[in-house]
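Aim 2, interim progress. The first record below pairs a target sequence with its structure tokens.
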Amino acid sequence: MSQKLSNAITSLKTEFMKKSKSTSHIHEIIPSLSEQFSISGHDLHMLHKFAENNSIYTNSYEMNVLNTTCKVYQGDVNNYWINSLKHDTSYAPFYPIWILSSYALALESKNLGAEQIIDIGSGDGRIAYCAKIIGLESYAIEIDENLVQLENEILASTKIDFKPMIADATKFDYTSLELSHPIFFISGLPEVGEMLANGVIPRIQEIQSLQKQPIFVFTGSHIMRKESRDKSMWGWGKLFDNYNLDVIKTITLPTYWTLDQPIDTPFIFTRFTD
């Protein structure tokens, strides 16, 4: 189901960008009717609640895209982006993926057998929120106090407790979460996110109580820049080799930074080599 959904989301994004005349700093769409899209009515309602109670979105309107009635949410993340850069160990500034993309990633995590999602560098908490609405235990770890405040405001308004935490993920005690079948989302594109990954993965390796090998999800790139240090495995090849990580799944989905590009963002699911 998640592959079919991810294909539908990327098709929706492509057509939306052809039709959109928005000048907003950020804009994305969510289908309005569940019968027009492969998402349950409850889950779709909760995705809209996330956007409606998220102060980065300041306006919305309806648009028909691929014969699907959608609501377009517009807003601005500039203030949060600037604030997120002020921490010494904030390796990845706040750039959101689509809410629909977060939902597809949460579904894939569930399909792979995860019982807990830990979103590291969670931003406004959208991945952890989506995980919670589909029945997974979730944790949102974020170092920036303004973003954690936003997460708590969304929690208070939606009543979805995705456990926002203000913490430095490179120093956090993951054993305190009592994890059994976890999946970790590590924010940041290659090179930027590499420092965060190098700080987090060794701490996960130290956990002795896991019943199942952890899964790590990385945000990659289909198009490598000339100056990129690592052009293999979507920009993560050297890190995967360093930690003996095998790729088990890749899903391409829309993000804020690929809206004006024909190729969207790959999310790479990995696990330690047996």
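The second target in this work package is listed in the same format:
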Amino acid sequence: MSSRFRVLAAALCLLASRVDAQSGRAAQPQIDSAPLLRDLFALAADSMEGRRIGTPGGARARMYLTARLKQIGVPPLRDSLAVPFKTAGRGGADIAGTNLIGVVRGTREPERYIVLSAHYDHVGVRTNQIYPGADDNASGTSAVLAIAAWLKAHPPAHSVIIALFDGEESGLLGAKAFVAAPPIPAERIIANVNLDMVGRNEKGELWAAGGMPNPSLRSLIAATMTTAAVKLRPGHDSGGGHEDWTNQSDQGAFNAKGIPWVYFGVEDHPDYHKPTDFPNRIDPSFFFRSASTVADFVRRLDAAPPARSAP
């Protein structure tokens, strides 16, 4: 990580707290910006070779993430953080991948769960070019780690499953494996909060999809918008002139099982799925504020979870 980014990371938390104080708005969760950026640069490094499912680069990313989860203090949900799966890929051949599934235990209702997720894989190496996938989705993965660290310091009422999925780029494979054989009864899942591309946007806009198909979550999105540190916009979930993102990332697997979801992400930029999706093209301030906004939504969801009807 460059010295410019290290200095900026050190200043971001102080700036955020001053803005909150001067504006009079409710303080955002104060996530740690230094590891947020450090994790992104590590995951998007050339040594990770684009993190494609089933490759040595993907395995190296998984080793890094496992070490970080242990460092943060996130234990496995079951016997191991690593949960292997095997499934048929788009071409019919079996694909083996590995999800990382941990948990921050709730203090009051530990048997009800929020699933906080991001996919850590990307598209790998194509025509001898590494696709680093800084925004897609080192940004979402790093934000989940930062929010997990905040949750460890501010224990939630409900348990929060920290799910880092493999194989999203190959057809939401890791998320589909998770919901096909959930490690806890599916009816105990309050909602899925999924992050995919939260690191940059020229307009300063972060989208929250999921309110239209999940009316019980709409008021929480609206409440988060009132104090969001970014331009948080609802949509991309029902047409209305915008592309429907319901099945564009791992929340699609939860949607297919009738599990409520909210997806946070930005609209495509010129480096989407290009070898130019470099970490130094991330907007550190926007990235930090996006992660803080999602943390605020998770806090609100934990404080006032909507009731789920029995399947």
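The CA atoms of residues 1 and 232 lie 28 Å apart. This observation will shape the mutagenesis plan for the next reporting period.
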